[in-house]
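User: Show me sequence and structure for the first protein, then do the same for the second.

Assistant: Starting with the first protein.
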Amino acid sequence: KSKKPKRYKPIITPAPPGIYASGIKDEKFVASLGALTTYWPHVEEHMVGFFAEMIGVADEASARLIFRSIINQNTRLTIMRNLLERSPTHREKADSFDTTIEEYAALNRRRNKYVHSLWYTHDETKKIFIEEEAESYDKFLAKREVPIEEIDETYFRMNALVGRLMERKQTLRLAQALA
């Protein structure tokens, strides 16, 4: 039995009718999204220590050079996953390592959607909508409302990840000092 070829299927997720202004017209929303966007490089910076541990490099400055040389985030994630899942060195690593990598990946995807999508403000309701980058012909029909709570929750998750990374770094430093 042959597989049916893929063909266009309309994606219709209608946004509320009305006029949409390009961009975000709510200052508080802009501030929250700006805080999230400018915090992301700090999340990456804290991932350097985790990356160093994964690749077995004690010198964090060297790990930073390697991490920053890998421009593609998916490549960084693939390296960390492969090392965790396939290296005998990491056989005894806790599940928290998988969780850290997956949370970092999820936050990266969300941050990319926010940064690379089109934003609109509904003129009448003043609600904020995003038109996420998609491989769909109908992407202009796929606006979704983004409440500020979603932005704040994402920022909170970033902050929580940084906190866990800082705790891990402290634990490693203490273990090294006691060794």
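Switching to the second protein now.
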Amino acid sequence: REDESFGAGGHLSIEAEADGAGNFQVTARLEEVDIQAVEEMLPRDTQLPLGKASARVAFADSTGKASLEATVTASLDELGEVTGRIGANDERGAVELEWYTPVQDLITVGGSVPWDLAEGRVDWHLGNLTARSEGVNLFVFLDQFPQLQSIDGFVKFDLEVDEVMGTPVVRGRIDAEEL
């Protein structure tokens, strides 16, 4: 729907297929969604960055094993390019994010957690997270963190976190250069 109060926000398509034996897949795609159009649907104090996003979500059940796969890509005017992947099945959920800053520095964040959906149990104590970058220029964060105005330089990091609930175990390295 397009009118003066709510403009076009992108394109949505949904596909479904089933084989009659209980196997099915439903796929939804959002293409070139204006993030500001999404912001208009959220509570008043919510602020989202300017840009466009696309997504593909697929839910399937094959021989009693359900799975969900989702990919979201966003081109954000002041933040760069972000890609997120989510995968889940009856035994585990996983997420991976890649952020290319406006100067093409790369930050990757990932994690997974095992679970038993049939029992409604999430084993957070067995979950893990990772965060890595070969170097990210700190000026990218100036708009979000004004306290960094007087700091210039690069931060490299390679971190792993196990037992994301309870007492996390953090391993890795953070290096700051040219501060």
